[in-house]
Amino acid sequence: MQDFEYIKIVPDERLSGFVESFLLCANHTNEDKEVIIFPDGRVDIMFSCTDQEPLVAELFNLDKKARRYIFKKQTRLFMVCLTLLGAKYLLG
After folding, report:
1. Is-contact 62 45, C-beta < 8 A?
2. Euclidean distance between the first and the last CA atom of the chain, given in angstroms as a whole number
3. Residue 24 and residue 7 in contact, taking contact as beta carbons nearer than 8 Å
4. Contact 84/77 with Cβ under 8 angstroms?
5. Domains, the chain, with CATH or none
6. Cα(20)–Cα(28) distance, rounded to whole angstroms?
7. Does this model's pTM top 0.70?
8. How many CA atoms lie within 13 A of 19 on its CB side?
9. Can you give the pLDDT of all 92 residues of the chain as single tens digits?
10. Cα angle for residues 9, 24, 88 (degrees, 5° grid)
11. What's CA 1's distance to the chain center, in Å?
């Protein structure tokens, strides 16, 4: 098994106006890892979970600044990367 896993999925044509991509990331190690998340012009909804913690949802890239993130050990992340239209629809 790899220490880190990253899978990018392109959405179905029916969602492509609202969703740029879906991402699955996983830290399979027994160590927390600090990463820097750089804004890329999208708004992302990130869902994270571990065996010990409940599901958490966070919005990213609303402030347009780089952000430090602690990628906790044995954590799985699922991200929905929205298009501008998708972000406008979701955030009103």
Report:
1. no
2. 41
3. yes
4. no
5. 4-91 (2.60.40.1180)
6. 26
7. yes
8. 14
9. 689 999 999 999 999 999 999 999 999 999 999 988 887 778 899 999 887 888 999 887 777 788 898 999 999 999 999 998 998 888 88
10. 70
11. 21
